Amino acid sequence: MTHTISVIQQKGGCGKSTLTVSLASILAGEGHNVIIPDTDALRSSSLWAEQEVASRGEIDHVHETNDNEISGLLRELQGQYNYTLVDTAGFNTRIAAYVAAASDLVLIPCTATIADIQGAINTQRFLSKLSAEIGKAINSAVVRTDFKRGQINDDAISAKLTEEADLDVLDAVLWQSTTFKTALNTGQHLRGLAKAHSQELVRELRSKRLIPPAITHKEAA
Ligand SMILES: Nc1ncnc2c1ncn2[C@@H]1O[C@H](COP(=O)(O)OP(=O)(O)OP(=O)(O)O)[C@@H](O)[C@H]1O
Ligand SMILES: [Mg+2]
Known about the structure:
43% of the residues lie in helices and 17% in strands. With 221 residues, the chain is an alpha/beta fold. The chain has a seven-stranded parallel sheet with strand order 3-2-4-1-5-6-7, sandwiched between helices. The site of adenosine-5'-triphosphate has 20 residues, from helix 1 and helix 7.
């Protein structure tokens, strides 16, 4: 059974592609079969995936920006992979709606800015409305990205975010680290702090049963 996780935020530049690639790196590194459907014309996450990096192994990717095609594509991928990780573009609500409707979990990245908080709130409202319209629950959670530990402004934004009743803000944070940029630019697996923070996120998603349990061995090819 494919588990579909999508990364959606109305506000651009909030770490969507970083989060998508980070999850792909950790889950594929554990031996899961992973595909990234990239629905952003900028192709940040598929450009990461298409780099042939010997130590990384294969992470499949597909680029689809046509909102008439995306639901069919996600249906087609069902059963072929352990995880489908969908990267989206900011502001394209039509494609985001199709993607969210087909997802088991929507992650909403949010950096330490007021604009991102507003974007996260708007995204959650959009998901709640969509969920009511299609009559299907849509699990969602906010992931703080690019926060700096112990910074007064960032701590204040964290407090403000967690006060928002409609948002489920995860404890794990993709703390600011150049190791995220290094991975994205080179196509490598996450290393160092980026890896540690992302593993923490995956652990939390599992402990909250938002994603399935880990598999303990690589599946036979
Ligand atoms: N935890 C982090 N530490 C350091 N840099 C980060 C982190 N998360 C994101 N960034 C940086 O922030 C910038 C925006 O991130 P990213 O491209 O992932 O956002 P996006 O939401 O996908 O943007 P777009 O809307 O353009 O698709 C990038 O330069 C990325 O390297
Ligand atoms: Mg992006």
